[in-house]
Amino acid sequence: MMPWTALSDRERWALVFQLKSFSVRFREEKPAAAIRVPAPPKEDAALRQRGADLYHKLMCARCHGEAGAGDGVAARAYEGSPDGNVHARDFTRGRFLRGAEMEDLYLTLRTGLEGTPMAAYDVLRDDEIWALAAYVRALVRERPLYDFPPARTHARAPVTGERPAALVARSKPRP
Fold it and tell me: What would the pLDDT profile of 125-138 be if each residue is shown by its tens digit?
């Protein structure tokens, strides 16, 4: 799917209305109230610690693992799901469906993710959601992209941050 940033506002809304026409739900169901995302608090050690306490109290580690790597005991149960597409999110990689900003994580935690086992934390207060979001962001490693499998045509980039020789050779200007 191409990024929607290449489209004008008018084109984006036209696309939204076209997509909505494919489902009878948009004609028959009343839309839910919009979710208000309050301004995020300052991320600090105290907020992250409150989030860590909630992470353990809410048993998030059962799916996402103690270190947030998506390797909790319950995650294994999803591996054998009939569609094969249900996986516990690995926070350490820094890749999230809605985005990795505090507001994005707030929205995911507040509403859940439809079609996945990730339920809405709609009973938590805003300050608790923010704390949990801050802790999840703290689980992201500084340089997570080096852990992704290499592309089929490129060598894996070393963890040191050096670029593979093949990429360095290709990035040099040609005479």
Answer: 999 999 999 999 99
